[in-house]
Design brief:
Elements: E1 5-13, H1 15-21, E2 26-27, E3 29-33, E4 40-46, E5 50-59, E6 65-74, H2 81-87, H3 89-92, E7 98-99, H4 112-146, H5 150-160, H6 164-177, H7 179-197, H8 203-231, H9 237-258, H10 269-274, H11 276-287, H12 294-302, H13 314-344, H14 350-361, H15 364-377, H16 380-398, H17 403-417, H18 420-425, H19 427-430, H20 437-462, H21 468-480, H22 482-489, H23 498-502
Parallel strand pairs: 2-7
Antiparallel strand pairs: 1-6, 3-4, 4-5, 5-6
């Protein structure tokens, strides 16, 4: 529970304006009058865990009233409470009964339980993202100890892209043991396998353990996406999916912060894998704050345990798989080969490459925030199409330009392309029936992995025959072909209940 924040304000209002302010608030918070305390309002609905507003007035000058308003509130959001409470100070000081919802929140007010659950899911994602990032970040240090060349590293990375395959075993059990329980099991197994990786005697054992460990994180990633989509209101799902990126970024960032440890000595990279033990313990503890969605409870209650078979729509699986394949076939290679392009073709130094990556990726947070909200207010298909055209086009042009235009096109592309996550990624959790969402998400994840593998191989092969920019451009046109597919095969699901969407299956 976060410490309560108190806002005390004094201002002058006309009697008419004070009468308006004396009405219960709506918007970000929905108030109710306390019948036992005149001028006191408590929380009826809203994302805050505690809330109270006290209002009083006395005669002032020139027929005006001197108004005293005291607002006390707190947000219990699994570690994000103090930040959210700070960010809400200005809007909760509003002198209007319609408290505006900030742009970084979904367009409809969040319920307190949904907000707590979502914040907890984001925290769990930090733990799993740390596991998922370790191999790629530490591989060069691992290879140094094991005297492994670039080709060996490439094969390890290639094998790690098949992580979803062992993850399917966990997803298949989710309907029987429960999604929250399976997230807990996945986090626990992932922590143990990550810790065991610290004792790897060679690259082969490390690759095997990490494929299994990353499989648990892939399964957990699918399940928390489904949980996030099911606990929020219809005009909050895309925003909820976008918020999971925050957890992934923090987990990966924590790995980056610890990365200098890997360079201390020949085997110090193993310390980062041992950190998986406290990270796993923390993640497992957080899962005890989660509960199953009402949708899932009803779905499994309707069907006996021995008859809980999963039914998937082949057409929806195919369409979503094609979209995931095309997007990752373009985005993953551009990430993998950007540094190579900057170093070889634009002659950037290592320091300038680092600066370029940081400065061009920071605006992506804006694209994610606005993309999440616009996906709810303007529609998923429009936002996804704009993100593909503007974001993908900007990134592709970044592989064909130099000088100032290299920076401009990459910034524009990196900013816009992040909107693909909430606008297109939300379909993974929306298009299937309740008991099929986990397995459906696993299949879509597998398609994205295949796309990333073939995309990297494609660029690696054709870059030596045309150019790096030319091969990236070809992949962009492949992703661009998704735009007409969006408007012909994807329904507009914004504002609809999940049951309305999946009933068309």
């Amino acid at each position: 529970m976060s410490r309560p924040t108190t806002l005390v304000d004094q201002f002058s209002l006309s009697p008419e304006a004070y009468k308006e302010l004396s009405r219960p608030r709506t918007g970000l918070v929905e108030e109710r009058r306390d019948p036992e305390r005149p001028g006191c309002y408590t929380l009826e609905r809203g994302m805050l865990s505690e809330y109270e507003r006290q209002l009083s007035a006395e005669d002032g000058e020139n027929g005006m009233l001197t108004v005293h308003q005291r607002v006390t509130y707190s947000a219990s959001l699994a570690g994000f409470g103090p930040l959210v409470a700070l960010a809400l100070r200005r809007v909760l000081r509003s002198r209007s009964t319609a408290v505006p919802i900030p742009r970084w929140l979904p367009p409809d007010p969040l319920e307190s339980d949904a907000a707590r659950q979502l914040a907890t899911i984001v925290m769990v994602s930090i733990s799993t993202a740390y596991y998922a990032t370790l191999l790629g970040q530490t591989l060069t240090f691992t290879a140094r100890e094991f005297s492994a060349g670039v080709s060996s590293q490439a094969w390890v990375l290639l094998a790690s892209r098949f992580d979803i395959l062992p993850g399917f075993a966990l997803l298949a059990l989710a309907n029987r043991v429960g999604r929250v329980a399976m997230v807990r099991i996945s986090v626990l197994i992932g922590a143990l396998l990550t810790a065991l990786s610290a004792a790897s005697p060679g690259m082969e054992m490390l690759a095997l353990l990490q494929v299994l460990a990353k499989g648990t994180t892939a399964a957990a990633g699918v399940l928390v996406t489904v949980l996030a989509a099911e606990i929020v209101a219809p005009r909050q799902r895309a925003w909820a999916i976008g918020s999971l990126v925050v957890g992934a970024a923090l987990g990966a960032g924590f790995c980056d912060v610890l990365l200098p440890i890997a360079g201390i000595s020949l085997g110090s990279w193993r310390i980062l894998y041992l950190v998986g033990i406290p990270m796993g313990a923390w993640g497992v503890r957080l899962t005890y704050l989660l509960h199953e969605s009402e949708r899932f409870r009803h779905a499994v209650a309707e069907v006996p345990r021995e008859r809980r078979r999963i039914s998937l729509s082949g057409s929806r699986v195919f369409v979503l798989s094609v979209a995931a394949f095309a997007v990752n076939a373009f985005l993953i290679p551009t990430t993998q080969f950007r540094n190579e392009y900057l170093r070889v073709e634009r002659h950037f130094s290592a320091a300038l490459i680092g600066l370029f990556v940081i400065l061009t990726n920071i605006p992506g947070a804006l694209g994610l925030a606005f993309g999440s909200r616009l996906s709810e207010t303007k529609g998923r298909r429009v936002v996804a199409a704009a993100a593909i055209i503007i974001g993908g086009g900007g990134i592709a042009l970044g592989f064909a330009t130099g000088g100032l235009w290299l920076w401009i096109t990459t910034v524009v592309g990196s900013t816009a392309v992040t909107a693909i996550v909430p606008s297109l990624g939300v379909y993974q959790a929306e298009m299937f029936q309740t008991r099929a969402r986990g397995m459906g998400g696993g299949i879509i994840t597998a398609a994205s992995r295949v796309g990333s593998i073939l995309g990297v191989l494609f660029v690696g092969y054709f870059s030596s025959r045309m150019s790096l920019g030319g091969s990236v451009a070809l992949l962009f046109f492949g992703m661009l072909a998704l735009v007409p597919l969006l408007f012909t095969w994807f329904p507009e699901t914004g504002g609809l209940e999940l049951e309305q969407i999946s009933s068309d299956e």
